[in-house]
């Protein structure tokens, strides 16, 4: 089989399927080897996937190239190995399924590289998100071998009889008769690797803090412990006769996933489901990898496990399954290949800003939680840096009466560069999208070169009325005027002289800036309502400006009409009657949150109710892409090369509309190529 050399490791792997097909990484566990996927991998390849099956460090033909390299086996290090393999193969984004050790390796991949992991399947071993608590006595008894290996005598016993040690787990972890001795003997050759014992001992000792993780992976180990949930489409496959991790040990697994998720119980199956019932595993993996994530649902699979099957036989027999799955792969589970996840966040992000030099920023409003950062720069490794500094981001709801609201970000809704070297932060000053804190509504200008605040423009109480919610802003080409949508109780366009700091309300109460009471917001055909029956009611929200600065476009979120006005009518001294007469209807649209006029002159609109990005073509609206990862596409920004960025703010997943949802929810930043 082919190999890939990375740093101190030479990774042996197997590859099936077409090279340009969507990729799936299959990761084996312990005590096992890559052949565990022999009856599953061909089914996935026949269904239209490129399947990569590596051999883990310490197993089989995978070898350390450096005699002095530490023989570590913690799951974060295995994930780093996997990323190196996929990098060497030129695979940027992929789906992953892992069994046992591979389950936690796959989990670490999703935590460490969320922009690369499309879907996740974990088999037989629960996630370690949030850290590993000491197990209850009953589970600790099942895991006796963990503690056995932590002792000097236990470690020596493993060195003296590695195959006997592995064999007892094959016997104990699954129903009697599930394997034949010839199969075990073939797999056990993988344990002849000279580093198998050291890697094994380190893996189990490190997870209970009896050994330090590989220093190169400490950052990822810490991130897994700090991460409570994952939001990507995921599946957990559990044998109901598993002798080491029975269903009782995975009771809390669903709470670890906030996105589309399914927990699958396989009747009569033990700890090695891909060996014991490969037909069922292949079928469920294809449901995850080639189906609609919205259709994922918990299930109990009572199909009979196959005992003592020859490799490949069970998988190749699934002819009907392959045919059905091949159709779904082309559509990549309701995904559009043009949409790329750039970053994932632990809190609700709404705004995004991309500067001329490629820096990326996001903001987190205090809607349902007390976000620890309001404005952040997204670094190349996906980490967040409070911007412009920690002090401006140190506001907390609990200290509302202690901190001067004009000197801190209180509830940031939008961040937009002005094209003149500045990033402007729009702070409605209304935590929870409720009452305005007096003096808190403001615009903050940050010099991008110096990373420092250079101006604060307070929006006074006769402009930011109680009930106002400053939503988004656009700038005149000369950088002297800002136009803000008020999406609160009484919609308006707020015009700000960025030099003098003076502001006023325009089209205040005009029909074009108000909610449309005939519009009912629905997602997947179901009305989006709060527990008390209220629907989303947001007035003028999305806003865009033409490249010459002469036309301002805007729309109420709870609306279906795109309006425009000549910006000359938004100057001081123009009567409201003249402004009202200047408003024009551009198009009949849909429920839209964000608007953006691109450098190429394309007006983009988000479409939260159908997970879509759309564009204006004359007086009609066309779909650019639809992808169910866009759970409430919110705000746009544009890179220097024309690449479009959009946040998914998951408004429908907040506890406003999903009772029992956590205060903090996972959100994402995506990118897609511009329309040609």
Structure description:
The protein is an alpha+beta fold and 676 residues long. It contains 15 helices and 36 strands. A hairpin with a 5-residue loop joins strand 14 and strand 15. The longest helix is centred in the N-terminal third of the chain and has 14 residues. The radius of gyration is 28 Å and the shape is elongated. It folds into two domains: 299 residues, 3-Layer(aba) Sandwich (Rossmann fold), CATH 3.40.50.1820; 327 residues, TolB, C-terminal domain (Neuraminidase), CATH 2.120.10.30. The strands form eight sheets. Strands 1, 2, 3, 4, 5, 6, 7, 8, 9 and 10 form a ten-stranded mixed sheet that branches. The chain has a four-stranded antiparallel sheet with strand order 11-36-35-34, with no helix packed on it. A four-stranded antiparallel sheet has the order 12-13-14-15, with no helix packed on it. GO terms for molecular function: hydrolase activity. InterPro entries: 6-blade_b-propeller_TolB-like, AB_hydrolase_1, AB_hydrolase_fold, Epox_hydrolase-like, MRJP/yellow-related. Its main location: secreted.
